Known about the structure:
Elements: H1 3-18, E1 29-33, E2 42-44, E3 57-63, E4 66-72, E5 78-79, E6 104-106, E7 115-123, E8 127-137, E9 143-151, E10 154-164, E11 169-174, E12 179-181, E13 185-188, E14 194-203, E15 210-218, E16 221-231, H2 239-261
Parallel strand pairs: 1-8
Antiparallel strand pairs: 2-6, 3-4, 3-7, 4-5, 7-8, 9-10, 10-14, 11-15, 12-14, 13-14, 15-16
Amino acid sequence: MDPLLIIILALGLFQREALGYPTKDEPDTKIIVLQNEEMEPTILDCDYEIKDKPTFLTVKWYRDDKTIYQWILGKAPAPIPEFKNDVDSSYESSTDPHKQYSSLALINPTIETTGKYKCVVQTDTQSVTRQQLVQVVDVRNYTLNLHHNRIHNETQLECIVTNVYPRPTITIQSNDEDVVKREPRVQEDEDGYFNATVVVAVYDTDDDPDAYQCIVSFEGYAQNLTVAGTSAGSAGLSHVDMNLWLFCCLYYLLSKLKVVLF
């Protein structure tokens, strides 16, 4: 091969690694959305190939480096006792006897199911490691409200979301550009769920009503939680309008009083 071509190819591979292009060994993320009804198991596969007929084979699954399940060829698969309610050890992933119980079937998921999973396959001649990220999303019992309070020519918008998992990103969007944003406040409760609040100040400069939308999003999850609202234009009740309104109210009360007196 031409030496120049070898150098070009080498530089190309170096740049590919330097730029951080994903490789087949980089884990992707599996999203589990919790539901109120009974859920189907979530299956994590362990991809490997057996080159020769091994004298022994073991498959171990870890969550955040803690063993949760293991299978030894020729023996029944078994989750670690602490995780017996989290794994369906009867699940068969393949008709190949060397892969029959190699997958991890997650059942009864909770927010604690979130984590970094790893399967390690070992034989007398080879060792294989595969990784998988799992992210649980729980928005079954959330609340989301958008409040607005009128203070002179300023509208304060406050969006509050409660009881969500994982940590949310919360923003308020406007159809106008007169919004002064403030940093959201996110807190984790004792059960591991999150409550978040964001407040923005809106300075209306026209008489047109403005539309607002509060958006709650989660990293890696395509569906957002949203709530919309509308505020009146900046004119609202002007100083003259307010005086007229007070005069009308006073006139109405005096007319009623006159009827009573006469």
